[in-house]
Automatic annotation (TrEMBL), chains A, B:
Belongs to the NADH dehydrogenase family. Residues 6-319 form the FAD/NAD(P)-binding domain. This is NAD(P)/FAD-dependent oxidoreductase. GO terms for molecular function: oxidoreductase activity. Its cofactor is FAD. Pfam families: Pyr_redox_2. InterPro entries: FAD/NAD-bd_sf, FAD/NAD-binding_dom, NADH-Q_oxidoreductase. Its EC number is 1.6.5.-. Keywords: FAD, Flavoprotein, Oxidoreductase. It is an enzyme of class 1 (oxidoreductase). The keyword Lyase does not apply.
Length: 396, 396
């Protein structure tokens, strides 16, 4: 590499933004050419999307302009969609043009995993982008408006598939939001049904059972019906078929039941497990020392050999280490092994309620809800400092 | 009639509310039993519905709770839908129960007239009630949200059928509203199309040609495309077929092309012209001296023998005279002939623009727009005094 090395970061999610920001710090001026590629000119705060989806917070609180997050003199930004990755040619094909790379960071994020459930891809909505949650928000009010014109009671049934973190957090916001919408649309709140369907034997699989019970009690108190241990067999345009063939007519089905990797990564010829690349201890794709995989595009194993769940937290930590390791490679230094440091987990349960595990301690209720806000604000501070906290933070 | 006479007013529109309020004044306590029947527990300001339909004003500014408009000790209010009118039995059948009457006032309002255009009833939205305009408002944003997910450009085409007062006023609000929505939904305003289709040879038929031209120029300047003298041949789920078979793919079709009378009135066995009863000079249905017809349920002829257009203005004046004539009948006095007094006409063209004819004078632009606000505020004052003006009035 005689000339300046080219670093291309695909995706401006948690991992990609942290990689870009840390590269800005770790590299001297003109030491490398860093290009960040993203489909939109904004970064979105995925862990916050359940709120604008339900309409309990504004869309603008869930996204940040990328130009405000990176130093344009150090990192180039290209707004484009990645079509293909040519690993042998060290080239990325975009919808308009292409980019050569010496180092590649794969942080394109995941795609909904529907496990082949018939009709799910076609008929269900998903919480995965600003555009998709805006559609959910508008779909909810559209159903209420339609109900007031055609009287079809199924329009007032809202089904959420999946009771993982996203499903539970979204259901909680829905339960907070719908009574307010009912007043606006002259609908009796008792006529609304919110049904959360989960195939696994428990809600929030992997989470502390005592907190799971607390969470379900809070949500039941808000009017949510749980169907736990019941699989969705089929998603229709007007409802779902669950369990042994029971049909639930519904005006909306939101699928939160799974995330897989990215089809672009699979098609690149990398070895994947459900669309994710099993990263080595330096976050590199096996056999491709110049290709780093982070966030939902990677699978990283814990010391017991089981994959860590794909969270914002791990993606951010991976972004920082990935940047350090690319800088080390350029500087001819030793890379650093990635080690996940678990800061804890918080699941919001709507206004004033949450459950959390921090440092082995269980926290619930109002205190946990404040913790959730602190986690969100801490993230805004990390990526954008005080100005971003003041602009996008939710304090109340 | 030995006992107290029973007066039943069907419909709490412009005519019905004015009848009820004037009866309160004209009759002494216990002189009659007055019952007002309406489908909703609120009165809506039909001439204002084009704004919440486009989302340029709130729904709440277009409706008023009926309990705030009538004196509950003088007029009973029944929230119910009229199923049938049995003129011979002097009985009104409601969806729950029935009411006997000695005097009946028909002010049920009109229904959309689609002139048998195929698919119009099934596929087009209409500006006729709080529920219907809420659906239009939500349908607009739903199309924008869908576009950002499926990229179908037809979703950004909005067709309004009919360029009468409602059509023109609604198109103007749409043209004001869509650029704002475009910013919210990350859509280029140039990608939006607003098309106003009118079969008649001119927009605003019957209005002053100079003002029609001015109105069209204002709206063209806001990006509206006119197809005047072109009939809609069919309304589809995904657009319209116009003229000689040209298809306009569209995400929304709003039909404002006509109003007819009410099917309940037709089914009552009264002689009707397009669902409207030709009222006698005292506002009574021919051959039924105890049945009064007002507003969109009636046709009233001008001195040249042509029907007056059905407006809020004429309905209000009819309500006042109708009340006076019922009181006269009860008091054994002579009824009064109805004479329409034209206070003028204003058509709003969106923010800061309107056209008006008042006392034969043509007024356009900002002054006409202020006039429109004054007309609206005057109406709020008539039905609810200063408190209602302060609560629902738009001053800016």
């Amino acid at each position: 590499m005689g000339s300046i090395p080219k670093i291309v970061i695909l995706g401006a999610g948690y991992g990609g933004i942290l990689t870009a920001q840390n590269l800005q710090k770790a590299l001297r001026h003109k030491e490398a050419e860093v290009t960040l590629v993203n489909r939109h000119d904004y970064h979105y705060i995925t862990t916050h999307l359940h709120m604008p989806a339900a309409g309990t917070d504004s869309i603008e609180h869930a996204r940040v302009s990328i130009s405000g997050l990176i130093d344009g003199s150090r990192v180039d930004f290209v707004k484009s969609t990645v079509q293909a990755i040519k690993l042998d040619e060290k080239k990325v094909i975009l919808d308009q043009g292409s980019l050569d790379f010496d180092y590649l960071v794969l942080g394109l994020g995941g795609e909904p995993e529907t496990f082949g459930i018939p009709g799910m891809l076609e008929n269900a909505l998903t919480i995965r982008s600003i555009n998709s949650v805006r559609l959910i928000r508008d779909h909810i009010s559209y159903q209420l408006a339609m109900y007031k014109n055609d009287g079809n009671p199924a329009r007032l049934t809202f089904v959420v598939g999946g009771a993982g973190f996203t499903g539970i957090e979204f259901v909680a916001e829905l339960a907070d939001r719908l009574p307010i919408l009912c007043r606006e649309y002259d609908i009796h709140p008792q006529d609304i049904k919110i049904i959360n369907v989960e195939a696994a034997p428990t809600a929030l699989p992997g989470f502390d059972p005592e907190l799971v019970e607390y969470a379900m009690d809070v949500l039941k108190g808000k009017g949510v019906t749980f169907r736990i241990g019941v699989p969705i067999k089929e998603c229709l345009a007007d409802g779902v078929i669950i369990g042994e063939g029971e049909k639930i007519p519904a005006g909306m089905v939101v699928w939160t039941g799974g995330i897989r990797g990215n089809h672009v990564i699979e098609e690149a010829g990398l070895e994947v497990m459900r669309g994710r690349v099993k990263a080595d201890e330096y976050l590199r794709a096996p056999g491709h020392d110049h290709v780093y995989v982070i966030g939902d595009n990677s699978v990283f194993m814990n010391p017991e050999g089981r994959p860590y769940p794909p969270t914002a937290q791990i993606a951010m930590q991976q972004g920082a280490v990935c940047a350090r390791n690319i800088a080390a490679a350029i500087h001819g230094k030793e890379p650093q092994k990635f080690k996940f440091s678990n800061k804890g987990t918080v699941a919001s349960l709507g206004r004033g309620e949450a459950v959390a595990v921090v440092g082995g301690r269980k926290i619930k209720g109002w205190v946990a809800a404040q913790l959730k806000k602190i986690v969100d604000i801490r993230y805004l501070f990390i990526i954008g400092g005080i100005p971003l906290v003041l602009k996008k933070g939710r304090f109340f």
